[in-house]
Amino acid sequence: MNTNIRRAADADIPALLRLLSQVLELHAQNRPDIFIPGTTKYTEPELQELLRDETRPIYVAADDDGAVLGYAFCQLRRPPFTTTMVPFTAFFIDDLCVDETVRGQHIGEALFSHVLSEAKRLGCRDVTLNVWSFNEGARAFYERMGMTPKETLMEIRVP
Q1: CA Rg, the chain, in Å?
Q2: Residue 113 domain-assigned?
Q3: For position 140, which CATH number holds?
Q4: Whole-model pTM above 0.85?
Q5: What's the sign of the alpha-carbon dihedral 51, 121, 144, 93?
């Protein structure tokens, strides 16, 4: 199967919502104290708006028939300049998902490689993302892609 990586379009919104649901359900199963089952990170109107925002590109992996197999939601980020930090632009992966029915077919690798190429083209210093500690599969995938921890957000639940 060939995988074509391209910018998402309005016609992709139903597939994006389906995949966003897969991601949310995984999170809701593992952290029901934070995530609400049966919801998605973005609504259809929010996706329509995002698709027009050049600073927040969405890429999809599609098969030869145009069926969406995965996505990468990205953001150009320029952290606030302080006198202690060098100014830079990062390409943040807000969300990356491959349909659970086609995982293991290197679609995630193709998406990730495309994101790296786009980050280079856009003059970004690095590609960053957050991954939940319970999501061992995602963590292992990102490590295989060459990512290493940059900082750790820690928590303690208030009794």
Answers
A1: 16
A2: yes
A3: 3.40.630.30
A4: yes
A5: negative
93 contacts: CB under 8 Å, gap ≥ 6? 72, 73, 74, 115, 127, 128, 129
Tens-place pLDDT, residues 57-108: 999 999 999 999 999 999 999 988 788 888 899 999 999 999 999 999 999 9
How far apart, in whole angstroms, are the C-alpha atoms of residue 94 and residue 96? 7
The domain total for the chain is: 1
The domain of 15 spans 4-144
The single-letter DSSP state of residue 70 is E
| Closest residue by Cα to residue 15 from 141, 23, 119 | 23
User: Mean of the pLDDT values across residues 138-159?
Assistant: 94
Q: Which two tokens stand for residue 66?
A: 């145009």
